[in-house]
Specification:
By secondary structure, the chain is of the alpha/beta class. The chain has 9 helices and 16 strands.
């Protein structure tokens, strides 16, 4: 596989990536103080043996079992040189605590967890260091592969619907792109909140969305969704800005459009007499409270993660290419071998 991404951020697709594998036999054997990790170096993804990180005060080290793929991963790769010489990407992880740093309370070696991990010391590795307030217990009802799909999608959906939109029981909510990672998380969170949930998807995902709680599913390939949905209280736009603009027509006056795909022009929102918000990242805000909220839904049988495909860590570039095509049901997962 010989694909390369540009050193600077450009519009080039992920299909220009390069993945070069360094054989474990060619590298030094993984020992007690080393680990295997997928690093970005000189425009390539390299599977290398690197030092195992050590937890400091307030941190834990996680032995990673699975990492989820997010669009942010391959977007960050195009700007990897800004993060240092050989950054490790990956935001979502599940695994078990391997070591606990000073001043960490309530956690011990062997505890199964999910985590929001921070590149350049990311989740595409056998081990990762994570602040204790960025982890939560792995839901008992989910496998490690499934649980790895929670952090980014679950936090984004929860912040958008609960913190920003203040979704209330009985309200009508439209999730545009309901079958994706954030979309499927949002469908379940909205349903658990007591909302009437409408989602857009292709025909192949209609049954899936109904199985996770959607009350109505609109096949976006069968005509403009904005002609079929009216008078909703909340819209969560997860697909693209063009869809976000079209979704304005579905909202009742006083409703809110939450876009995770970029801001919507204020004049368009004002003319429709709606509120519009484009929440950015949490800015370092502890992730644990959000992760625990989703945990509780999962263990109550109200939240699950659909895993479309599992790849070995060495095939991350292929997973990124598939992710960029934008038709994944749920999550793509990287399995981390030890």
């Amino acid at each position: 596989m010989h694909r390369r991404f540009p050193a600077r951020a450009t519009a080039l697709p992920v299909c220009s990536l390069a993945l070069l594998l360094v054989s474990p036999l060619a590298a030094s054997a993984t020992g007690p103080e080393t680990m295997k990790a997928l690093v970005v170096s000189d425009g390539h993804l390299l599977l290398r043996t690197v030092p195992k990180p050590q937890p400091r005060a307030g941190e834990v080290r996680i032995e990673i079992r699975a990492a989820a793929v997010n669009p942010a991963d391959w977007k960050m790769a195009r700007m990897a040189s800004r993060m240092g010489p050989t950054p490790i990407l990956g935001l979502d992880a599940s695994g078990t605590i391997d070591a606990v740093g000073p001043s960490v309370e309530g956690w011990k070696r062997g505890d199964p967890v999910i985590a929001l991990v921070r590149p350049p010391h990311g989740a595409y590795a056998q081990y990762a260091i994570v602040p204790a307030d960025f982890i939560a217990p792995k839901p008992r009802t989910l496998t490690f592969d499934e649980a790895a799909g929670i952090p980014v999608a679950g936090i984004t959906a929860w912040r958008s619907l609960i913190d920003v939109a203040d979704l209330q029981p009985g309200q009508r909510v439209l999730i545009d792109g309901g079958a994706g990672g954030v979309g499927s998380a949002a469908v379940q969170i909205a349903k658990a909140r007591g909302a009437y949930v409408i989602a857009t998807a292709s025909a192949r995902n209609i049954r899936f969305l109904r199985s996770i709680g959607a009350d109505e599913v609109i096949d976006y390939t069968a005509g403009p969704f904005e002609r079929k949905v009216k008078d909703v209280d909340v819209v969560l736009a997860t697909v693209n800005r063009a869809d976000a603009l079209r979704a304005i027509a579905t909202l009742k006056p006083g409703g809110i459009l939450v876009s995770i795909v970029g801001p919507v022009p204020a004049d368009r929102c004002a003319a429709a007499r709606i509120r519009c918000s484009a929440p950015g990242s949490s800015g370092g805000q502890p992730a644990a409270p959000y992760l625990r909220d989703v945990d509780r839904l999962a263990d109550a049988g109200k939240y699950r993660v659909s895993v479309e495909r599992v790849f070995p860590l060495s095939e991350a570039a292929e997973a990124w290419t598939l992710n960029e095509q934008g038709h994944t049901r749920g999550k793509l997962i990287l399995s981390v071998a030890h």
